[in-house]
């Protein structure tokens, strides 16, 4: 199947490097105009030709391949607020790993599209997604991905207020580790990520705006719960006063967290199918490669840089929430992801990423599913108005006014009952008094 959308290319007008067509979403499937009108080059041959013309030391191969990829699968790029504050969030995952060993194979299954942010595309018939937020200049992608995943999971049961990413920045600190299994690993995967083994222990170091990992944030939330954003607002800075012992009561409790896919390949060894299986239950916190044109993405189908090759674990440097998947008639399966760069990035804060047979741009590595439930306190919705602000009048909140109303009602009712009883007693005494005769002169 030819994946490149048809385009007319004039042989006379075209020159070396003109894109002719691509037969798949991988760069090596593309054909390019060579030196003459009848010359056609593969991607590797074109790169070799450019190197021979400009001499090896002047060709930035990675940058050239990114540009070639953009030509093959055009998506919109532009400016967003992240360019103003800087892209520090792109390299905000602190991790390392140790490992064991590998094997495996792939299949493909087509199933209906799923999107937990679209009421018409999930079994609940409603959007359960958290609102898109902006991490601003702080490297807090890990915290925002964590609270968004927690909110979304809890929203499946009942509505919950926004959760505090700042609490994670302030309080989820230090070293955490977790073992991940990759039963889907094949020689193809190890070719695109030589460092990846079938069993690895990931070590996270959560350090506020300097980075962290969602699984470490979930472990903190499992032990302590998460309070609302109203209780601890986001400041895009580390440690608001440095007080983690004075947090408000949690509004969401975490029952458990686990690797979403990779531990069991009894039904399939296709990583994309396993990831789709995981999404059937709830959205998933994931890590992703954010190099190349990631920060400039404004819409369309995005292709992972470097043909999905993840040369080192450090290349997986950003956290997002995987909320669904759909299909493009040309490029097939793609993933729907929610980011924390604000609504002026991507498609109102979301990205469509073309699935690949490597690591899905890192999504396969650290997908974390969680169990989360709102606490009793979180379901008391009378305290929040339509703008998600505490309801307040005359210096008293909703709960205080309800208490005043109950007190006044009880007092009034009691006073009324006492008054009725006194009046009845007085009437009875008057009826029992002896009659007196009066002389009329």
How are the secondary structure elements laid out?
Elements: E1 19-22, E2 30-33, E3 40-42, H1 43-54, H2 61-72, E4 76-77, H3 81-85, E5 95-99, E6 114-115, H4 141-155, H5 165-171, E7 174-181, H6 187-192, E8 199-206, H7 214-224, E9 252-259, H8 271-279, E10 284-289, E11 297-299, E12 301-302, E13 316-328, E14 332-338, E15 350-354, E16 368-374, E17 392-393, E18 396-397, H9 398-432
Parallel strand pairs: 12-15
Antiparallel strand pairs: 1-2, 2-3, 4-11, 5-8, 6-13, 7-8, 9-16, 10-13, 13-14, 14-15, 17-18
Helix pairs in contact: 4-5, 4-7
Number of separate domains: 2
Largest sheet: 6 strands, mixed
Beta-strand percentage range: 15-25%
The CATH homologous superfamily of the largest domain is named: Cysteine proteinases
CATH secondary-structure class of the largest domain: Alpha Beta
List the secondary-structure elements in sequence, H or E.
EEEHHEHEEHHEHEHEHEEEEEEEEEH
CATH topology label of the largest domain = Cathepsin B, Chain A
CATH architecture of the largest domain: Alpha-Beta Complex
Q: What is the number of helices? A: 9
> What are the low-pLDDT stretches, counting only 5+ consecutive residues below 50?
1-13, 97-109, 378-396, 435-441
Number of strands: 18
- Helix share bin: 25-40%
First and last CA, distance = 128 Å
Mean pLDDT: 80
Shape descriptor reads elongated
């Amino acid at each position: 199947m030819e994946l490149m959308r048809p385009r007319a290319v004039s042989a006379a007008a075209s020159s070396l490097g003109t894109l002719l067509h691509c037969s798949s979403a991988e760069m090596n499937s593309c054909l390019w105009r060579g030196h003459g009108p009848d010359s056609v080059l593969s991607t590797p041959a074109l790169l070799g030709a450019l190197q021979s013309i400009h001499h090896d030391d002047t060709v930035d191969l990675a940058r050239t391949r990114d540009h070639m990829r953009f030509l093959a699968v055009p998506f919109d790029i532009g400016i967003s607020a992240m360019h103003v504050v800087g892209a520090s969030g792109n390299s905000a995952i602190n991790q390392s790993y140790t490992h064991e060993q590998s094997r495996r194979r792939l299949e493909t299954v087509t199933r209906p599209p799923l999107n937990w942010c679209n009421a018409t595309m999930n079994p609940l018939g409603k959007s359960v997604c958290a609102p898109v937020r902006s991490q601003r200049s702080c490297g807090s992608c890990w915290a925002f991905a964590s609270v968004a995943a927690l909110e979304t999971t809890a929203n499946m049961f009942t509505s919950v207020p926004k959760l505090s990413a700042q609490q994670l920045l302030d309080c989820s600190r230090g070293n955490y580790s977790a073992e991940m299994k990759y039963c889907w690993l094949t020689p193809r995967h190890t070719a695109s990520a030589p460092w990846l083994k079938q069993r690895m222990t990931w070590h996270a170091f959560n350090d506020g705006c300097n980075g962290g990992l969602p699984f470490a944030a979930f472990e903190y939330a499992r032990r302590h719960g998460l309070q609302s954003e109203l209780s601890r607002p986001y400041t895009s800075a580390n440690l608001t006063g440095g007080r983690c012992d004075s947090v408000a009561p949690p509004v969401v409790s975490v029952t458990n967290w686990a690797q979403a896919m990779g531990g069991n390949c009894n039904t399939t060894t296709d990583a994309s199918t396993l990831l789709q299986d995981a999404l059937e239950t709830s959205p998933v916190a994931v890590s992703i490669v954010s190099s190349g044109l990631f920060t400039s993405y404004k819409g369309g189908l995005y292709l992972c840089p470097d043909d999905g090759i993840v040369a080192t674990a450090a290349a997986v440097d950003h956290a997002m929430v995987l909320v669904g998947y759909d299909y493009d008639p040309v490029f097939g399966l793609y993933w729907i992801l929610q980011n924390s760069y604000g609504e002026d990035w991507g498609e109102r804060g979301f990205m469509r990423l073309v699935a690949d047979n490597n690591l899905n741009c890192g999504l396969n590595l650290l997908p974390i599913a969680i169990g989360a439930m709102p606490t009793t306190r979180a379901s008391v919705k009378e305290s929040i108005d339509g703008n998600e602000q505490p309801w307040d009048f005359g210096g008293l909140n909703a709960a205080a006014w309800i208490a005043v109303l109950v007190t006044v009602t009880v007092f009034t009712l009691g006073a009324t009952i006492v008054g009725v009883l006194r009046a009845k007693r007085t009437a009875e005494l008057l009826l029992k008094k002896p009659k007196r005769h009066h002389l009329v002169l």
